[in-house]
Amino acid sequence: MTEDEEPSPEFVKGYNHGYQLAKHEPELLDKILKSSNDNTPNDYSRAMVHGKTQYEHEKLVAEMKAIRERQKQNIRRKR
C-alpha cells in the first residue's frame, strides 16, 4: 500500500484491533499474532502488527517524556 492509497476496511479494522489489544491485552495479541504467522498474512493480520507497533511507539514516547520531566524536576530541586 502506498501513502496515497486508502487503506482497506479490513486493514483499518485490524490496525484498530491491534492497537487496542496491545494497550489492554498484550499477551492475547501476541498469541493471536503468533498463530496468524502460521497462516498466510493478510491485510488484517499485517494491520494488527502495525497497530501494536504504533501503540508501543506512543507508550515509549510517553515514558521518555515522563523521564525527561522527572529529570527537570530533580534539577530544579538541586538548585
Compile the SSE list and pairings.
Elements: H1 9-24, H2 26-37, H3 43-78
Helix pairs in contact: 1-2, 1-3
Overall description:
- The chain is mostly helical.
- It is 81% helix and 0% strand.
- It has three helices and no strands.
- It has helices spanning 9-24, 26-37, 43-78.
- The longest helix is centred in the last third of the chain and has 36 residues, at 43-78.
- It is elongated, with a radius of gyration of 18 Å.
- The N and C termini lie far apart (53 Å).
- The mean pLDDT is 91.
Give a quick precis of the structure.
The protein is an all-alpha fold. It is built from three helices and no strands.
Number of DSSP helices? 3
Largest beta-sheet characterization: none
- Structural class, judged by helices and strands? mainly alpha
Radius of gyration: 18 Å
Tell me the helix content. over 70%
Low-confidence stretches: none
What proportion strand? Answer: under 5%
Number of E-state strands: 0
Question: What's the overall geometry?
Answer: elongated
Mean pLDDT: 91
